[in-house]
């Protein structure tokens, strides 16, 4: 890459030199450009008269001579690796340049190559090492949150290592994956969940974020179409760090800290619980016409209930509160140690790293440990041949939590009445532990599972990559890469006999699962660069082949002698076992040409041909073209006079990309041999065929403006895009009377339109430095055609895909509050009476007559991030907020039990105390009627706003001055403290508005909360030492 | 020269073989290759049992729903499965997941059966073998249509059977989605015709003894239920009599021997079971146990403890009735002992019911085919340590049936066919009928919804 940088710089200069020859009426100036740090000459720096194409580059001794027009006032000096400098024109110009890069001259990684930011015609967001180093993030994708405009990241829950949702420019699919393609050093990596327990895990946790040099998000078709059928959801190119020639750098970093769950929910205390329970029982007796004194009355039942579930502790006058919710959370910790070495000479460079991470979660029973190492070597074998190799190995061990919808989910303990003691007074064991009464907690006590069960997932991951790059002819390069992503995972679970109520395994149950994914990839491509006159051409032609095979095995055993024996070797009954396999392959050819004229006009064309085992026989290969243009207006004479303007580029692109994440064999009509009965093997029809099945097609248009003012102190980007997706792969519902519920077809259309805005400002540049980065994106999705399908999901099947609406809107009966006369929950009928919407209301018994309407949207309107960086002398402070607005969340998961005015016996949220009691009372909580469904039906009562602004990260660091470090014989010594999620501003009533219940999560089932654990609030102390 | 060599090498690197894209799945096979041999047909028939055993069907949900629908006099339902809670409270919505799952599961299994029936010509070893396979397939299909029409349509004779909508009748296998896939509801009469045709042919084809699989007695027992439902007492009596007289089944010595098939009987059926779903350690589940069961502390027992039996029910038994003692007290609650075994086989029909059916039909017809009504009833009473009756009236037989078969999923059908109120709800209340699942209504505009859900 370094060679490429030089090449690009050279071409730049040559081009400008050519331009120079046509100028006239000049005066001669000269000068010398040096490095600010060591005073060494800067070779090949470009010196340009601002607003013109008159320029030259410096000689080996850093000097230059230039004829400038008589009226020239300002010179711009640029060089790769240095910040741009502007100086007034004078006879002698001596400038010292500071190291660092101006954004415009940075090299950006693109598909199968790299480009200078200034010359880009596509939209690529970039997150650099600095933005993800030393954050308490187990996976790199989470680092995109709030840092890249148009990239929406939702961390889903506070469970360690679990999948996060990443959406680039909206949700462009319904049934196929909507996650972007991740490409690590050229290899598309395995990112599908491989776990068989609880919510989806994130295979990217195996990658050490501190090994990452940069992540580029290819957002539009111009940037992405080179990845063809795999680019519709955007492409994230992850580039790992490599060695640089020069002094060997050794850096060690240690950080330690603690974490707590960000928020709690206000539930009833024991006194309130009993009060409302009796009230609801009394109301029920009244409705049923039973004398409360009758032993069969609900009030008598309440007496029994209070006595039974409190172990007799309950009395009307006093009773102790047991806060079951608090038991679910613990003080977590975070410890991480990193060592990195890098260095080398002109011939050989290396990078090596080790990391150990030990994280204890904020929900009881959750922890994660990762040990990872990486070695990268680049070697110049001959002048014309570079070779290199990188390999990493990691082990990630996680003690998993069950899915949100499991009784053993600790957060579900919140539902246990606060009258119930934590421990059974008769046995002293956790309430509900046999031999005590298993049913003494209203539900299975999840802390029994924490105490007497475990589920450990261990992943071993190897990412390897080797390349050879040869200069074949002047300007013609050939690069060949071979990469591997090996994932080996084992999951070991055991549930002791104490979990019987939950597992129905009175003598214990264990399971052991393995997953082995062998994913290999090769890229082979030519790159050709040529300049002629004012023209500059870069062309790429190549191929890619990828194949991935996954093998799984599972065994389950029951009846263990005791909890001392937890391996299946000791299971008296082998109660289940299976092995399975799946695979896919892609063969692709691609070509791209970038053309630049006069450093003003840019044109880029690309084409990819993809064929895959996933597509039907009748549509095996597809072509994905893209074209884009750019115009650097600031290099035009008519803008050269505008002094405040330092850079202005207009770009536009159009292209076709696809989404091939449609599962491995969706096109075939299948029978599956998993339908055995009582020990005899059986088969069943499992899938209806569709030989025409193919990828989803997205056509994307993007128009953008890149600008810089005041010597780029203010810079930014503004983009508008339209993404039209057609041939949506839908599990088209068919009548279940066929024996199938759906057939996979390419039908349906949806669109995403949006605006993205990025603004970078250097507010103060003196000793006290202050810079700000703001990014904000608005995406509006709309389903245009569904071929009449009804597609729903999520809690209560409330997420729905409907024509004319964004994907996954909440569709339910509209809640109309409470009838002040009788405490009935009311619902708007919303039926269509000849075009007139009937806004009259019905109560629970008429619920069936009420029509469902769109009552919310889980997709945010605006997603934004704001980062402020301050520095003064050795101190630096970074403050990063992010947030979303305009989205709703479905809380029916808890709400139907816990905010349901005693529909069931669960502990209720504190607001339920406001349940209606007396005629004329105005309240939004219906009368509590024990076991009666008075308002707990599916309705907009349980759809709430999910807007939030979160202080995602704040970090304060201090670099000891060089005078001190030199005495300590250190290159660098830095202390820092950082906080994650210290502040969340939201009106959300449950735990965390950044939520996606894992057991319900799908493309369309977003924004559901189901006793989902909140994000951790983490405070870290760190020290960074450079030798 | 060397460079040109490199270029050639590089270009070779760019070409790859497209054959590498022909991958096939390893756990599944294409439908063209699935039904080519006799073996294929047999494993597909097993697949149909596998489907029948699903929780949503005879794995127990069919029986559970039949018990819970509006049954507030006998059961206090305290579970959190909203679908069942709504069924119990008669606050059912069209999105009820239990109604949906049973509908989908039934038709999925019917398609498996139809696949078997489509490939009978592949069964060539013997006519007996082909008959057995066809008979079992038809038994499964007939039984499922019977359960569907009872749950999702008006009771036989509640209005005009010829115009009351039943359920869609699908009698051929699905190979693709065609206009015919959007099937309307056949009338109640048409559905009953098909059920009788399937079960009658099944009975004629099936062997008298067939292990855990359906035998001719199972088809006859199911036919007797169909006939009772239709008020065709002659047919009901004769079918029940055929089951009793076959000699294949025998009442257990004590009432308690009927249950705990896994805990006490290593998974084997008692001699009285005519048809049941076998649960093994590896396979199958018992959702009667899931909702009616609870852990008593005895190893192998468990369940969610959702269905608490009300004292009002327990009070119905006479003193010393073994069945009246067949309740487990846990805390202040009572649970039926019938479904405590976590891995108990799921009963579909047993011999005692045939005695009671024969008794009722004989009494109504004034006949004594097989035995007198009094003798049949007293056989059942005697087994539960009750003194024999001197005389018997219809009410006695119905009461005996009610107690003998309590919480086995038959009570609602008995109330409907005898035109008796069910927990205070009129037998023909529209609320005692499940909705056609909303999902089906949404995808198939040929379907009409049931009255209570319009």
From TrEMBL, chain A:
InterPro entries: Beta-barrel_TonB (IPR000531), Beta-barrel_TonB_sf (IPR036942), CarboxyPept-like_regulatory (IPR008969), Plug_dom (IPR012910), Plug_dom_sf (IPR037066), TonB-dep_OMP_SusC/RagA (IPR023996), TonB-dep_OMP_SusC/RagA_CS (IPR023997), TonB-dep_rcpt-like (IPR039426). Keywords: Cell outer membrane, Membrane, Signal, TonB box, Transmembrane, Transmembrane beta strand, Transport. It is found in: Cell outer membrane. This is SusC/RagA family TonB-linked outer membrane protein. Belongs to the TonB-dependent receptor family. PROSITE patterns: TONB_DEPENDENT_REC_3. It comes from the Bacteria. It comes from Flavihumibacter stibioxidans. Residues 117-235 form the TonB-dependent receptor plug domain. Residues 445-982 form the TonB-dependent receptor-like beta-barrel domain. Residues 1-24 form the signal peptide. It is a multi-pass membrane protein. Its main location: membrane.
UniProtKB/TrEMBL annotation, chain B:
PROSITE patterns: PROKAR_LIPOPROTEIN. InterPro entries: SusD-like_N, SusD_RagB_dom, TPR-like_helical_dom_sf. CDD domains: SusD (cd08977). Keywords: Cell outer membrane, Membrane, Signal. The keyword Disulfide bond does not apply. Residues 90-228 form the SusD-like N-terminal domain. Belongs to the SusD family. Pfam families: SusD-like_3 (PF14322), SusD_RagB (PF07980). Residues 344-418 form the RagB/SusD domain. This is Carbohydrate-binding protein SusD. The keyword Signal applies. It is found in: Cell outer membrane.
């Amino acid at each position: 890459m370094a060679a490429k940088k030089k090449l690009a710089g050279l071409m730049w200069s040559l081009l400008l030199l050519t331009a120079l020859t046509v100028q006239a009426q000049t005066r001669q100036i000269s000068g010398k450009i040096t490095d600010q740090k060591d005073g060494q000459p800067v070779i090949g720096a470009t010196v340009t008269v601002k607003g013109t194409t008159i320029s030259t580059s410096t000689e080996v001794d850093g000097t230059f001579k230039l004829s400038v027009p008589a009226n020239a006032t300002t010179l711009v000096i640029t060089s790769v690796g240095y910040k741009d400098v502007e100086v007034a024109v004078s006879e002698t110009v001596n400038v010292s340049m500071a190291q660092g890069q101006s954004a415009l001259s940075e090299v950006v990684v693109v598909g199968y190559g790299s480009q200078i930011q200034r010359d880009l015609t596509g939209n690529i967001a970039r997150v650099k090492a600095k933005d993800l180093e030393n954050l308490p993030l187990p996976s790199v994708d989470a680092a995109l949150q709030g840092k890249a405009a148009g990239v929406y990241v939702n961390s889903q829950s506070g469970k360690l290592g679990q999948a996060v949702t990443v959406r680039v420019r909206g949700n462009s699919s319904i049934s196929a994956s909507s996650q972007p393609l991740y490409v690590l050093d050229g290899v598309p990596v395995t990112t599908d969940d491989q776990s068989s327990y609880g919510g989806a895990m994130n295979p990217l946790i195996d990658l050490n974020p501190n090994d990452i040099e940069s992540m580029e998000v290819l957002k539009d078709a111009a940037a992405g179409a080179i990845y063809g059928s795999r680019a519709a959801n955007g492409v994230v190119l992850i580039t790992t760090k490599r060695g640089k020639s020069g002094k060997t750098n050794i850096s060690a970093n240690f950080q330690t800290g603690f974490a707590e769950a960000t928020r709690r929910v206000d539930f009833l205390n024991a006194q309130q619980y009993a009060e409302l329970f009796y009230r609801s029982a009394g109301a029920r007796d009244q409705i049923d016409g039973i004398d409360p004194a009758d032993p069969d009355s609900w009030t008598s039942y309440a007496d029994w209930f209070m006595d039974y579930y409190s172990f007799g502790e309950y009395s009307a006058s006093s009773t102790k509160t047991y806060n079951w919710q608090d038991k679910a959370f613990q003080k977590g910790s975070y410890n991480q140690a990193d060592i990195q070495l890098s260095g080398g000479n002109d011939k050989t460079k290396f990078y090596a790293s080790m990391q150990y991470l030990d994280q204890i979660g904020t929900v009881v029973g959750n922890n994660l440990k990762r040990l990872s190492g990486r070695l990268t070597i680049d070697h110049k074998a001959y002048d014309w041949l570079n070779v290199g190799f990188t390999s990493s190995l990691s082990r990630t061990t996680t003690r998993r939590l069950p899915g949100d919808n499991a009784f053993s989910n600790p957060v579900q303990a919140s539902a246990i009445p606060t009258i119930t003691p934590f421990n059974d007074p008769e046995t002293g064991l956790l309430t509900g532990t046999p031999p005590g009464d298993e049913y003494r907690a209203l539900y299975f006590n999840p802390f029994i599972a924490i105490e007497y069960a475990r589920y450990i997932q261990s992943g071993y991951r190897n990412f390897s990559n080797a390349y050879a790059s040869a200069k074949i002819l002047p300007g013609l390069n050939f690069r060949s890469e071979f990469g591997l992503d090996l994932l080996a995972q084992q999951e070991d679970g055991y549930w002791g006999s104490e979990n019987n109520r939950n597992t129905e395994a009175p003598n214990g149950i264990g399971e052991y699962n393995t997953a082995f994914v062998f994913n290999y990839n090769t890229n082979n491509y030519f790159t050709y660069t040529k300049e002629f006159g004012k023209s500059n051409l870069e062309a790429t032609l190549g191929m890619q082949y990828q194949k991935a095979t996954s093998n799984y095995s599972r065994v389950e055993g029951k009846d263990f002698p005791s909890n001392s024996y937890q391996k299946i070797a000791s299971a008296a009954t082998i109660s289940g076992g299976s092995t399975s396999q799946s695979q896919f392959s892609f063969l692709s050819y691609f070509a791209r040409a970038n053309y630049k004229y006069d450093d003003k006009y840019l044109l880029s064309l690309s084409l990819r041909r993809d064929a895959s085992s996933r597509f039907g026989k009748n549509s095996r290969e597809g072509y994905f073209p893209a074209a884009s243009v750019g115009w650097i207006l600031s290099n035009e004479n008519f803008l050269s006079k505008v002094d405040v303007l330092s850079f202005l580029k207009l770009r536009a692109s159009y292209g076709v990309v696809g989404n091939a994440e449609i599962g491995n064999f969706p096109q075939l009509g299948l029978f599956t041999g998993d339908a055995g009965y009582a020990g005899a093997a059986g088969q069943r029809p499992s899938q209806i065929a569709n030989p025409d099945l193919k990828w989803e097609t997205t056509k994307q248009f993007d128009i953008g403006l890149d600008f810089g003012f005041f010597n780029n102190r203010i810079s930014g980007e503004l983009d508008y895009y339209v993404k039209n997706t057609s041939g949506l792969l839908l599990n088209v519902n068919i009548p279940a009377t066929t024996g199938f519920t759906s057939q996979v077809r390419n039908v349906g259309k949806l669109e995403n339109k949006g605006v993205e805005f990025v603004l970078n400002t250097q507010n103060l540049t003196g000793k006290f430095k202050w810079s700000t980065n703001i990014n904000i994106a608005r995406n509006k999705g709309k389903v245009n055609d569904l071929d009449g399908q009804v597609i729903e999901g999520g809690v209560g099947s409330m997420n729905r895909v409907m024509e004319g609406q964004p994907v996954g809107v909440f569709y339910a009966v509209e809640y109309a509050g409470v009838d002040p006369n009788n405490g009935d929950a009311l619902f708007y009928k919303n039926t269509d009476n000849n075009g007139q919407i009937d806004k009259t209301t019905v109560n629970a018994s008429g619920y069936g007559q009420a029509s469902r309407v769109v009552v919310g949207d889980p997709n945010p309107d605006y997603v934004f991030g704001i980062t402020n960086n301050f520095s003064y002398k050795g101190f630096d402070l970074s403050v990063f907020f992010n947030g979303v607005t305009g989205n709703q969340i479905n809380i029916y998961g808890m709400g139907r039990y816990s905010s349901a005015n005693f529909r069931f016996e669960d502990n209720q949220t504190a607001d339920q105390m406001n349940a209606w009691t007396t005629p004329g009372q105005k309240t939004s909580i219906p009368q509590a009627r024990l076991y009666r469904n008075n308002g707990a039906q599916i309705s907009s009562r349980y759809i709430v706003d999910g807007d939030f602004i979160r202080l995602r990260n704040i970090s304060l660091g201090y670099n000891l001055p060089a005078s001190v470090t030199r005495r300590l014989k250190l290159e660098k010594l830095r202390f820092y403290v950082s906080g994650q999620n210290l502040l969340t501003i939201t009106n959300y009533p449950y735990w965390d508005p950044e939520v996606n219940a894992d057991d319900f999560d799908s493309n369309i089932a977003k924004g559901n909360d189901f006793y989902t654990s909140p994000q951790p609030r983490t405070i870290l102390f760190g020290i960074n030492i450079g030798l | 020269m060397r460079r040109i060599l490199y270029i050639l090498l590089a270009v070779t690197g760019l070409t790859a073989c497209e054959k590498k894209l022909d991958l096939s799945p390893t756990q599944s096979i294409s439908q063209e290759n699935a039904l080519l041999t006799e073996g294929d047909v047999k494993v597909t028939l097993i697949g149909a049992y596998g489907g029948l055993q699903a929780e949503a069907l005879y794995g127990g949900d069919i029986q559970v729903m039949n018990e819970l629908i509006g049954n507030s006099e006998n059961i206090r339902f305290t579970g959190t499965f909203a679908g069942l809670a709504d069924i119990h409270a008669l606050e059912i919505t069209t999105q009820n997941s239990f109604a949906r799952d049973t509908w989908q599961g039934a038709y999925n299994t019917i398609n498996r059966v139809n696949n078997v029936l489509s490939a009978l010509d592949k069964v060539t070893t013997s006519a007996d073998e082909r008959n057995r396979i066809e008979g079992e397939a038809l038994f499964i299909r007939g039984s499922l249509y019977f359960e569907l029409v009872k749950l999702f349509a008006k009771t036989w004779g509640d209005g005009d059977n010829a115009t009351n909508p039943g359920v869609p009748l699908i009698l051929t296998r699905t190979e693709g989605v065609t206009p015919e896939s959007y099937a309307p509801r056949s009338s109640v009469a048409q559905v009953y015709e098909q059920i009788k045709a399937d079960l009658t042919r099944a009975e004629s084809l099936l062997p008298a003894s067939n292990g855990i699989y359906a035998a001719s007695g199972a088809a006859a027992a199911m036919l007797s239920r169909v006939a009772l439902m239709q008020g065709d007492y002659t047919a009901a009596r004769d079918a029940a009599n055929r089951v009793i007289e076959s000699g294949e089944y025998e009442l257990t010595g004590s009432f308690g021997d009927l249950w705990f098939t896994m805990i006490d009987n290593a998974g084997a059926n008692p001699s009285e079971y005519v048809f049941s779903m076998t649960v093994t350690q590896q396979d199958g589940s018992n959702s009667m146990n899931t909702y009616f069961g609870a852990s008593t502390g005895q190893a192998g027992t468990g369940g969610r403890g959702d269905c608490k039996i009300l004292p009002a029910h327990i009070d119905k038994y006479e003193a010393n009735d073994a069945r009246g003692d067949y309740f487990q007290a846990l805390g202040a609650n009572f649970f039926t002992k019938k479904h405590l075994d976590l891995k108990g086989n799921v009963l579909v029909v047993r011999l005692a019911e045939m005695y009671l059916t024969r008794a009722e039909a004989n009494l109504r017809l004034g006949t004594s085919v097989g035995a007198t009504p009094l003798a049949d009833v007293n056989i059942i009473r005697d087994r539960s340590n009750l003194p024999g009756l001197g005389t018997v009236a219809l009410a006695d037989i119905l009461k005996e049936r009610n107690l003998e078969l309590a919480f086995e999923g038959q009570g609602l059908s008995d109330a409907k066919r005898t035109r008796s109120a069910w927990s205070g709800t009129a037998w023909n209340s529209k609320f005692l009928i499940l909705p056609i699942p909303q999902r089906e209504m949404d995808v198939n505009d040929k379907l009409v919804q049931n009255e209570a859900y319009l």
